[in-house]
Amino acid sequence: xxxxxxxxxxxxxxxxxxxxxxxxxxxxxxxxxxxxxxxxxxxxxxxxxxxxxxxxxxxxxxxxxxxxxxxxxxxxxxxxxxxxxxxxxxxxxxxxxxxxxxxxxxxxxxxxxxxxxxxxxxxxxxxxxxxxxxxxxxxxxxxxxxxxxxxxxxxxxxxxxxxxxxxxxxxxxxxxxxxxxxxxxxxxxxxxxxxxxxxxxxxxxxxxxxxxxxxxxxxxxxxxxxxxxxxxxxxxxxxxxxxxxxxxxxxxxxxxxxxxxxxxxxxxxxxxxxxxxxxxxxxxxxxxx
Length: 289
Prior knowledge:
Number of helices: 9
Number of domains: 2
Strand content: 25-35%
Largest sheet: 6 strands, mixed
């Protein structure tokens, strides 16, 4: 019987705060953030192939299969598996139910890549540890290691230095303002704050709710007015802020009933949804520490 894993959640992340504290000589920005996993994301389906082919079986508008992080992650793991020990080269058919917007600041592509690494590591019986997969993931993007890490995390550097943190059980309302934000445009803006004072994990843990800000939000809101509109509207109900480099905007609530109430009032020209905080990635326990 052909091995498969179905309905693998590639969860979205929210940046509970995001400070830019400096810039490296290679142009990468130094960040501090807390990544929060939520129970909403893309769904991936994997079926092992015996002929070594990697195929994405779902068409995605504007995303050629060859450049998709899902396919690139599978091929990267395939190459690493052969280098680790000579073996029959297995492949995979990968289907995706795409639910997260591109350019939304939710980490959708990175999460898809991480889920691919974790699922195929299991299906192909490669035997890589979580640290091995995180190192592979870093070759694909700065956020991929976080999703492989699989815990909510205080992150520094370019996002690859992580320490697990506990966050409260929270219901989030997330608004998609209808724009796609290229990350490079935000980070290259001259007016971007690049000298926020560094904070400690203990600073976040003492405050959590309402801690810090998103340094990228001012720039993104100026360049993409729908983001500013969504922040203003959602801010009637609590501490609304943008996640990542945009465009999605979120607000957290202790009670699901309050999140439902706010969700029911979101203007119809925006897509919106609710999500519950996750403590762990659903596939985390598949990996060896």
